[in-house]
Amino acid sequence: TRHWLWLVVGVEFLCVSALSYWFIGRAVRPVSTLNAAADALAAGDYGHTFYVPNTDELGRLASTLNRMSQAMHTRTTQLSQHAARQSTVLGGMVEGVVAVDARQRIVLANEAARRLFDFRPPTVEGRPLLEVIRNHDLHEAVTSVFTTSEPLRLELRRPGPPAKTIDIHVQPLPGEPCEGVVLVIHDTTALRRLEAIRREFVANVSHELKTPLSSIKAYTE
């Protein structure tokens, strides 16, 4: 009899343990799933769906996290595509583009700007503008735009070889106070050379015509 009694107690104990394990697992498993979902979102791992069978607050929380994960995945994809398009456009521009933040540190510089100013090293993001482009006129122009929030234009001459004439338009970014400026840079060396040739040609033609005109005037008188 005692043997059967201990057998019954043992069976009841096993049944209670199994039921307790099942109930505890059912309560803890959704929490573990939600913790894994939160860790994935915090690590930037978006786009996954986390299944929680509960219909209570934990189930609603899981649905909210799933919607948040999908929305962030969509938004991240859109931002990546936008950044790729922006990089392609900036890289294909003839004009140089340099973006500077409120501390006058370079945030962005395209390939045309690197060629015009011969950036060394090629990676200049995060470095002060004056350290990369050692020109005090440009530094003063950028400082003035930060102070007045009004666009400004200036022309710089870089010694060679080869010497270059560079036209720079300094445009403030929206915000109060000004959060940054964008420099749009044009190489006007060829244009200035053509203008000099035109002026020289006009001066030579005027000189060559001056003597015949004087003779004609004298004969007319």
Topology:
Blueprint: H1 2-42, H2 57-92, E1 96-101, E2 106-109, H3 111-117, H4 129-132, H5 136-148, E3 152-158, E4 164-172, E5 180-187, H6 189-220
Antiparallel strand pairs: 1-2, 1-5, 3-4, 4-5
Helix pairs in contact: 1-2
Judged by helices, strands and strand pairing, the structural class is alpha+beta
User: Unreliable runs, pLDDT <50, ≥5 residues?
Assistant: none
Strand content: 15-25%
Overall radius of gyration: 37 Å
How many β strands by DSSP?
A: 5
Major sheet? 5 strands, antiparallel
State the helix count.
6
Instruction: State mean pLDDT (0 to 100 scale).
Output: 76
Strand ordering within the main sheet: 2-1-5-4-3
Task: Supply the key terms.
221 residues, single chain, alpha+beta, five-stranded antiparallel sheet
Describe this structure in words.
With 221 residues, this protein is α+β, with helices and mostly antiparallel strands. It is 60% helix and 15% strand. The protein has a five-stranded antiparallel β-sheet, with helices on both faces. A hairpin with a 5-residue loop joins strand 3 and strand 4. It is rod-shaped and about 155 Å long.
What's this entry about, in short?
This protein is an alpha+beta fold. It has helices spanning 2-42, 57-92, 111-117, 129-132, 136-148, 189-220; strands at 96-101, 106-109, 152-158, 164-172, 180-187.
